[in-house]
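ok new one. same drill as before - structure tokens go in, u give me an amino acid for every spot. 1188 of them this time. try not to just spam alanines like last time pls lmao
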């Protein structure tokens, strides 16, 4: 493109777009003809908010020393940067916040970090990184539409939270594609292919969201090192509307995993079973059946937000406070407001307010962003601020002294704000103006307490300041007879200041030593971390008799978010010495106290970094949840279990129904009163003979949650819950857990009490209703007592928000909360759900239990945002543990199926092998395919070979209990004559079935002999000789001379010659031999063809295509006119599926009726004796009908 034309067009574009007035675009071309020849020169001349456009060429390294600079290349195929890109410039500790890099190929790893300067909110898009060591992101970054290929170590290293990684390709990295040492990162719509590891978690944080990615052909999926994140989302956290194979659905979407081998029975593109991410990193509950680009995510991909905003007011006088309202569309996730368009971000709130203190016209810039991109809206001269209007003055004053003997001369000093033109002093507040000077003096002649009033005025108004009882005048020579003193300052309770709340200060033992009654006694309280001169609060004792003592409670409203500091409180009585005393030195007391979190309160609110009882596992399945907690007798007190503890669960404790699939099994191991050195228990745990823990629980194999009171007598006595995934070690017949002190040392490692343990089993079973299961985990100690614990009922509440799935409330049949708590009861604790009181004094355990209380919460259920509250009461304290919400749905009536299918390929030369795929909806249970050439199948996804040319119409009929439907595709398969001398050898039928000790015939067929056949020497093999063998060969009539290997055998050769030239030029579908195959034992085997010699009538060799076949050996043989042998669907010994199609229906009753005599003569009678009378009769048919 002509550079001059491009510059003109680009300048016009910048003029059309509304941009900041001071923003400028610079141009760089290494060949000359632009503003600069190097990128660094352009950067050095640019200002915040500018754009640097880079033409095609090769450039050296550069560094960014200013914020909000966009550096845009002409494209990664045209612009190459050889050298390190520093963001920010390391030599100057610069600020490079908001840098945008795009459209270039980068050959050296960029240096993006905030250690040597300021960098955040970086955007890198449309770039190619080829052959680097790795791409390191040390600051939060939007990384979109890039290609990382052939890196010698890692693809992308994430070392800062809150990054967005979207629409990238990461391929052929030797180590890992994405290396996580970050939290709350979104990884979406990426191709992650052919790397050493797809994901490497190194002490990664929580809340990383990884979904809608294509993850294929990596040597390994995950690798971990260090602390395992407690929760990683491998699918979307909210339902997504998407189109798949022409049908629109709404549901959760995960990732495409190339090693996932699940099925998709309903054809919605989401696997029927979950994908377990290796190394205990979680589960993709909704894996994709195809790469994500085969799904059209309706309205979400990609959607770049469009910035828009309003403000109120937009004009006024300084100082002007303006409320800004974001009206952007496209679901932005971040906001950057520049209220003066000076390149400095003033706020990142969505709807902020801002005060303009100076007059002027202000341009406002809002930049919004989400995972798909960003956009800015600039409103020029949007806020107009005028010079402030004249205002009346604000009165204030001071005086020295404020007390003394009569006559008392006092000097008054004006401290008013604003312009003052007149003063009116009323020194005794009697309504008479005593003085009009600015700073007067006045002498009080008479003993008493005086209120002073100052009124100031100017042309715009007036204001008054009244100070009540400000001047105290005493009698000269008066002898004080009373003395005020304070005994102590106390903090209630336990002399600890609690973080994250106001605190009560106790001024204890205030005594009036004397005979006179004293009134209006002021008590100030000072906090050392607030001010030494301004009290945090003041109280007044209205009256205290001579010889009397009182104690008062004063609230310090200061909120301290973090523990760890020390606060010294000082209480001062009569701070202004208004009351004559015999001793003024005993009017104050101080106490230094530590700032602590209150462990008896809910951790999520009252402990910095503390967590609510949050969702760790979710399941949406047909199945259920079972749990069993050991009885109170399993509790072991501190030091009382040195010889070990064994807990045993029988099969009846966890009765998993037959036919179920175990999804997950969790062991919940809870403890209390832990005093082990170092703060963590050291234990040996053996589950079903397998060591699952041997050492410190904090670094072991489980997930550990802890809490402790943090103050008082039992400040460091710890409560805990450790959770183990024991799915692979669980046995339906019974389980045991053996607990011993580590290394057998009870003196060192027995200093912990053990709650009874709990096993939780989640299973799938198609006979069960659909359930959504939320499992929340944490440990939160709760206690209610204002005097002992410093708590109220509301504060001693642990909250359990249930997240990760939306609930279809209109279809819910039951909603049950299983709330586990330690030492809860009896008659202890309230249960809240979504703010409603469900039960009071509900738990009925004791100090040795950890079992669940069960609550019906259906009537309180919301679609999202459900939250339980476990509220301690005044019964001694309890320990909130795991909380499990099970939502059961009504069993819906089956819908009629809607037939549909696809095929691959739909055209080609004969013989043409076609794979048919059922895409029907409505959960069909049987399928009947008519391939249009006389062949059919009852498989769901069959394969079929068309041996002759022609156009074939295919019909699929599907059926379930609700009805049936068919899909007819006319001339769907187009088969052409094979070109040249192509010949295909195949088996007819391709897939055969035979009963044990029975035999069946299979033809060996050639599709076409364009030049005739003179003879053949072939081999046929069955790959599993234990299943079947070939017992006989029948040659066609034209085969006058034959030879074959010894029979029976599973691998044979056979040869013959066409002496009479019977197989002529153009012969089609020629049967070369008929094989008799005998079934040996139940199973399946593959048949294959080999060619030693195959020649046409000219003696030329024929190079055929070879198709394989299968043979299935069943216990029974098919009924006459049926393709498959009967099947026992429910395992009760009776073979109700007479047609062998995998379903019991009326068709099977008809087949039984038509073949009663044949069954009696050829089948074991006990397999078909449905009425149990030892014979085959009409009553068996009646009983079968009753079964339906």
């Amino acid at each position: 493109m002509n550079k001059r034309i491009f510059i003109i067009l680009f300048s016009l574009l910048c003029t059309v777009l509304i941009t900041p007035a001071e923003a400028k675009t610079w141009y760089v071309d290494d060949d000359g003809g632009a503003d600069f020849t190097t990128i660094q020169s352009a950067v050095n001349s640019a200002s915040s908010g500018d754009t640097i456009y880079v033409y095609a060429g090769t450039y050296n390294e550069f560094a960014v020393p200013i914020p909000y600079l966009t550096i845009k290349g002409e494209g990664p195929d045209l612009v190459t940067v050889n050298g390190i890109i520093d963001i920010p410039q390391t030599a100057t500790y610069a600020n490079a916040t908001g840098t945008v890099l795009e459209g270039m190929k980068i050959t050296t790893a960029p240096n993006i970090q905030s250690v040597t300067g300021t960098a955040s909110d970086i955007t890198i898009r449309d770039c190619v990184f080829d052959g680097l060591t790795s791409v390191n992101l040390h600051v939060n970054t939007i990384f979109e539409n890039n290609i990382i290929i052939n890196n010698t170590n890692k693809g992308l290293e994430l070392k800062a939270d809150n990054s967005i990684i979207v629409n990238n390709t990461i391929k052929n990295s030797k180590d890992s594609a994405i290396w996580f040492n970050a939290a709350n990162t979104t990884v979406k719509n990426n191709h992650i292919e052919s790397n050493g590891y797809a994901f490497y978690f190194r002490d990664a944080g929580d809340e990383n969201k990884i979904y809608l990615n294509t993850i294929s052909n990596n040597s390994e999926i995950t690798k971990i090192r260090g602390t395992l994140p407690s929760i990683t989302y491998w699918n979307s956290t909210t339902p997504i509307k998407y189109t798949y194979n022409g049908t629109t659905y709404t549901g959760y979407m995960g990732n495409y995993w190339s090693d996932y081998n699940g099925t998709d029975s309903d054809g919605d593109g989401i696997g029927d079973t979950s994908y377990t991410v290796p190394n205990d990193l979680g589960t993709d509950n909704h894996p994709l059946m195809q790469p994500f680009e085969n799904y059209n995510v309706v309205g979400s991909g990609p959607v770049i937000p469009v910035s828009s905003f309003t403000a109120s007011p937009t004009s006024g006088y300084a100082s002007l406070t303006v409320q800004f309202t974001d009206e952007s569309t496209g679901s932005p996730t971040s906001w950057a407001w520049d209220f003066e368009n000076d390149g400095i971000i003033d706020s990142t709130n969505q709807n902020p307010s801002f005060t303009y203190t100076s007059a002027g016209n202000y341009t406002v810039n809002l930049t919004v962003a989400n995972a798909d991109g960003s956009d800015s809206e600039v409103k020029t001269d949007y806020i107009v601020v005028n010079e402030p209007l004249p205002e009346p003055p604000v009165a204030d004053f001071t005086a020295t002294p404020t007390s003394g003997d009569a006559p008392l001369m006092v000097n008054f000093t004006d401290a008013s704000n604003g312009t003052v033109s007149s003063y009116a002093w009323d020194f005794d507040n009697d309504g008479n103006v005593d003085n009009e000077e600015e700073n007067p003096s006045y002498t009080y002649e008479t003993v008493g307490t005086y209120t002073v009033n100052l009124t100031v005025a100017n042309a715009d108004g007036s204001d008054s300041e009244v100070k009540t009882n400000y001047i105290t005048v005493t009698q000269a020579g008066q002898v004080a007879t009373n003395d005020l003193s304070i005994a102590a300052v106390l903090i209630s309770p336990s002399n600890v200041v609690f973080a994250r709340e106001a605190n009560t200060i106790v001024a204890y033992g205030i005594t009036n030593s004397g005979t006179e009654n004293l009134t209006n006694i002021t008590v100030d309280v000072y906090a050392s971390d607030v001010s030494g001169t301004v009290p945090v609060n003041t109280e007044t004792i209205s009256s205290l008799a001579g010889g009397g003592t009182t104690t008062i409670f004063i609230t310090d409203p200061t909120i301290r978010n973090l523990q760890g500091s020390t606060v010294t409180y000082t209480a001062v009585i009569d701070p202004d010495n208004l009351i004559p005393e015999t001793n003024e030195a005993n009017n104050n007391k101080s106490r230094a106290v530590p700032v602590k979190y209150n462990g008896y309160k809910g951790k999520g609110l009252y402990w910095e970094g503390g967590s609510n009882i949050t969702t760790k596992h979710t399941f949406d399945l047909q199945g259920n949840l079972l749990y069993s907690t050991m009885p109170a007798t399993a509790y072991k007190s501190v030091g009382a279990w040195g010889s070990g503890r064994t807990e045993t669960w029988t099969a009846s404790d966890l009765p998993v129904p037959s036919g179920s699939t175990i999804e997950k099994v969790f062991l919940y191991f809870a403890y209390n009163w832990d005093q082990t050195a170092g703060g963590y228990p050291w234990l040996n745990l053996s589950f079903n003979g397998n060591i699952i823990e041997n050492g410190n629980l904090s670094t072991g194999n489980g997930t550990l949650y802890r809490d402790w009171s943090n103050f008082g007598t039992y400040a460091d006595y710890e409560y805990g819950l450790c959770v183990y995934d024991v799915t692979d070690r669980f046995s339906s017949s019974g389980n045991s857990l053996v607990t011993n002190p580590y290394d057998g040392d009870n003196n060192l490692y027995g200093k912990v009490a053990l709650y009874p343990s709990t096993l939780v089993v989640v299973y799938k079973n198609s006979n069960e209703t659909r359930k959504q299961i939320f499992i929340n985990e944490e440990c939160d100690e709760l206690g209610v007592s204002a005097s002992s614990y410093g708590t109220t009922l509301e504060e001693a509440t642990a909250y359990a928000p249930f997240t990760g799935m939306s609930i279809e409330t209109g279809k819910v049949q039951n909603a049950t909360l299983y709330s586990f708590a330690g030492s809860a009861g009896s008659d202890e604790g309230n249960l809240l759900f979504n703010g409603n009181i469900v039960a009071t004094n509900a738990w009925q355990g004791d100090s040795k239990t950890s079992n669940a209380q069960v609550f019906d919460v259906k009537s309180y259920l919301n679609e999202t945002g459900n939250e339980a509250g476990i509220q301690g009461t005044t019964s001694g304290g309890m320990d909130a543990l795991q909380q499990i919400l099970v939502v059961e749905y009504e069993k819906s009536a089956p819908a009629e199926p809607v037939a549909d299918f696809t095929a691959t390929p739909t055209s080609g030369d004969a013989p043409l092998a076609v794979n048919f795929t059922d895409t029907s909806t409505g959960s069909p249970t049987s399928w009947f395919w008519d391939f249009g050439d006389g062949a059919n199948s009852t498989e769901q996804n069959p394969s079929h070979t068309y041996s002759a040319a022609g156009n074939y119409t295919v019909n699929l009929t599907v059926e379930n209990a609700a009805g049936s439907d068919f899909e007819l595709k006319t001339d769907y398969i187009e088969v052409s004559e094979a070109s040249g001398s192509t010949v295909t050898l195949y088996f007819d039928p391709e897939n055969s079935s035979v009963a044990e000790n029975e035999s069946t015939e299979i033809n060996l067929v050639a599709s076409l002999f364009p030049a005739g056949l003179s003879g053949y020497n072939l081999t046929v093999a069955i790959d599993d000789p234990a299943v079947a063998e070939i017992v006989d060969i029948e040659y066609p009539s034209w085969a006058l001379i034959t030879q074959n290997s010894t029979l029976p055998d599973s691998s044979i050769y056979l040869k013959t010659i066409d002496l009479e030239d019977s197989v002529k030029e153009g012969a089609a579908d020629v049967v070369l031999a008929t094989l008799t195959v005998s079934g040996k034992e139940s199973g399946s085997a593959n048949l294959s063809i080999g060619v030693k010699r195959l020649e046409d009538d000219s003696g030329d060799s024929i190079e055929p295509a070879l198709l394989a076949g299968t043979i299935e050996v069943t216990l029974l043989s098919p009924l006459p006119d049926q393709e498959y042998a009967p099947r026992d669907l429910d395992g009760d010994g009776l073979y109700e599926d007479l047609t062998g199609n995998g379903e019991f229906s009326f068709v099977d009753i008809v087949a039984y009726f038509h073949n009663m005599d044949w069954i009696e003569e050829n089948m074991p009678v006990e397999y078909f004796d449905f009425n149990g009378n030892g014979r085959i009769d009409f009553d068996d048919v009646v009983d079968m009908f009753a079964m339906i």
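The helical segments are 3-16, 39-45, 603-606, 746-749, 1146-1154, 1156-1162, 1178-1187. and btw The CA atoms of residues 270 and 288 lie 5 Å apart.
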